[in-house]
Amino acid sequence: MSVEILELERELKELRDEAKSLLEKEERSDEDIEKAKGLVTRSEKLASEIEIRKSVSGWEEAKPIDPPNPGARPETHGFKNFGEFLRSVYESSGGGRIDERLAIAPETRAAQGLNESAPAAGGFLVQEDFAQELWKRTYETGVLASKCKRVPISSASNRLKMNYLDETSRATGSRYGGIRVYRENEADSTTASKPKFGQINLALEKMMGLCYATDELLEDVSAMESVIGDAFAEEFGFALDNEIIRGTGSGQCLGIMNADCKVAVTIETNQAADTIVTENIVKMYSRLYGKSRPKAEWYINQDCEPQLFTMSLAVGTGGIPVYMPANGLSGSPYGTLMGRPVIPLEQADTVGDEGDIIFADFSQYLLIEKGGVDAASSIHVRFLYGENTFRFTVRNNGQPLWHSALTPFQSTTILSPFVTLAARA
Fold first, then answer.
1. Which domain-ending residue is among 22, 43, 63?
2. Looking at the chain, which terminus has fewer C-beta neighbours within 10 angstroms, N or C?
């Protein structure tokens, strides 16, 4: 009965968290509000059921065990930091006595399907406060992921199904996938119309990382906090950004470079190899979807900077610089092109290749995620080397919200929130 109550309490927390996330969205819709109301109703019923089960079973709330670190925050269950938590996981996974601090934190026990009585066979989940901090740092250290539209997936699902308006053209009769309106005097010739919908069907995929920690490192919890916590947060952030740019969409995110909605601007006639010229920038800017311009930014490989610094726009017999360096004429923390920030990005391709300079609005990119980070440990994989293995896993996926580029109303030049420059070989 106690296990069932713990599971119900976990479900109750997830319902409340999901309702809270819907109500705290910056641009919440009526549908979001209605869904949140439904979640609140369900959580209230579940809370009543939990209370009834507790009274029937004689449930008593567990009294806190005196933690080894008096004064530590209650939500950390007595752990000073993430490093100390990891060392406790390692020691408890060696077949010895399980650390009491792990035992009183049910959310750290092994996931369903693993052997809970033998943590070495499955491991411990990273408890919520540490998991959220690690995942938060992943988004802070990444450049692109924090700019995307993020959607949390509830415990009851492993994918997101979302309808979208299948609009590829703004021509009359094609807007919103087929909606059309008429003046009254045209009533005799009107034709019924309806919108056309498509569906995004995005499944969660695992992203994993391994770390080998020496016995000496495990003794120094401060060093382990820095080495493992910071390193994995940064590496998860780097790998996620890289997939957002060039992911294949098979078992990983679909990157913008492989998406059908990307627009690649053609190069100038007789343009030299490995160059970027003013005309490229002007044409890239003109191909970005107009409503995306306020949020769009330029992402470049730093190999491109010598090209940018020497670009100018002819005005009469003189000219003006196109690229405004940071803290120069632009007075901005970033350099600017056409008034928009220029951000160096390691994952951008080298100068001359498509993807060396990208003009994009990543609010039009969808990232789904479930929970935070979970970790498991093993003392066996690197036993001969005196090293212990930690495995970190996150579940996420992503793809552009646009399924194709858009042809505007009075033009045949297609537009997109993701614009690149074709290769200059």
1. 63
2. C
